[in-house]
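Rotation project, supervised by the postdoc (A.L.). Task for the rotation student: set up a whole-complex structure prediction and record inputs and outputs verbatim in this book. Inputs entered:
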Amino acid sequence: MGATKRTKIIDVLNASKVGEELTVKGWVRTFRNNQFIAINDGSTINNIQAVVDFNTTDENLLKRVTTGACISVVGEVVESMGKGQSVEIKVKSLEILGDADADKYPLQPKKHSLEFLREIAHLRVRTSTFSAIYRVRHAMIFAVHKFFTEKGFFNVHTPIITGSDAEGAGEMFAVTNLDLNNIPKNEEGKVDFKEDFFGKETNLTVSGQLEAETACMALSEVYTFGPTFRAENSNTSRHLAEFWMIEPEMAFYDIIDNMDLAEEFLKYLVTYALENCADDLAFLDKRSQDEDKQKPQQQRAEMSLMERLKFVVENEFVRLTYTEAIDILRNSNPNKKKKFKYLINEWGADLQSEHERYLVEKHFKKPVILRDYPRDIKAFYMRQNEDGKTVAAMDVLFPGIGEIIGGSQREERYDNLKSRIEEMGIPEKDLWWYLELRKFGTAPHSGFGLGFERLMLFVTGMGNIRDVIPFPRTPEHAEF
RNA sequence: UCCCCUUUAGCUCAGUUGGUUAGAGCGGCUGACUGUUAAUCAGUAGGUCCUUGGUUCGAGCCCAAGAAGGGGAGCCA
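Outputs recorded:
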């Protein structure tokens, strides 16, 4: 058909000149009045309006211009006579690249429920909401690498299949190529993993941290950004069985340096989104506000999405210790009036999400970083503090999301680490290499984990983690 | 895994105290109109009322079990 190369819609809208002839390809969002085709190619949330002359165009061709169809148009850029757009394309020729049977295509030019769209995850990216989320997701992936690169960190690919059963971050998915209908057994009657592909029991990783620490002991500042798997039977809007996690690990950082980096990192990412995803965020902001209007007054957000994003960038995160938090919670109204499901009575209790939400959403009304948690409720690798009761752990708590980052200063002292491993009954044989890091040239170091989809929840204002990853994996759900 | 809620047309939802032929908007189809903005107007088709069993003269509605979806909790990122 036309002589010109395809022009992306974002470039037509931002950089084309009136009078220019060009080719646009994309998917029909809606076809109005038998002459106005709204085309979207995903390069921007905005559509280009292509205007056909129905008097001179084949009627049978026009009938195939249906919502969802893929088309190619050649035409001239002209100033629009209508109000909704400044330029449009006056069509000279129109070609259907792919029909979409209007009787069967499930998407209509109207609002669909997120639940319905989850059932058609292969098509939902064709909606404004999901294409915006995909674009913001890309921007955040890029910003993560940009941030760490600018700070001199090195990206490390840690293994996805792990032979260590000691990561201690939850239930794991087994990896095997044994014949599950005929499992080899050893003398004790248990599965004989010597027969398995790796000659030992293996799982999908639940964290790249331990391996990242090895790189940290040579490259000083590293980070991982990879898929992570948890076989927990979690059915919440904040959990996935397969998600992406960012785990920086820094030599010579103490817990305070660690918190400084976490705060700087989050602010960098949100700033990047504000500066680079303005159109998509404006749409998502409006979407959230429309959704909020359906809710009763009490459940509505106090701030809009844009206000929340700016708020995080502009305000210092509140920092306090676990012990200080317990004092605040113990004397809080909901605790005194027994409104908490789990009342805070004494030091040592694990904080429930209702407590974290109280601190973040009611008491401080700001992101909060808690540190120095009781050692008994935290992982074996966290550095033991001088008081003998706490470890140098830190959690960054965000409004609406809860824990977005969890991290710690790592225990770098061989004897302390070894005794902690023994106390907690963790199989030491799997951790020999981890312990050797402390034997040979150990160094103080710290790190944290950021759940990428939790960040996405915050940046997009979406309420369910299944809507910020293209193909969510949750219990009973691995379609697509 | 636990608690609560929901399930009626392709989508979003009404459906009275158990009563005869189950409705609306959007979408689809047919036509009209032709500078529209989720176009508009007219007409029209479209139903396993989630499933199974029960109560009843009679069940979309009541009861029981199950399934699916959502919200909250736990676990965590």
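Student's summary: The two ends of chain A are 35 Å apart (CA to CA).
Supervisor addendum: Chain A has two domains: 9-110, 126-171+206-467.
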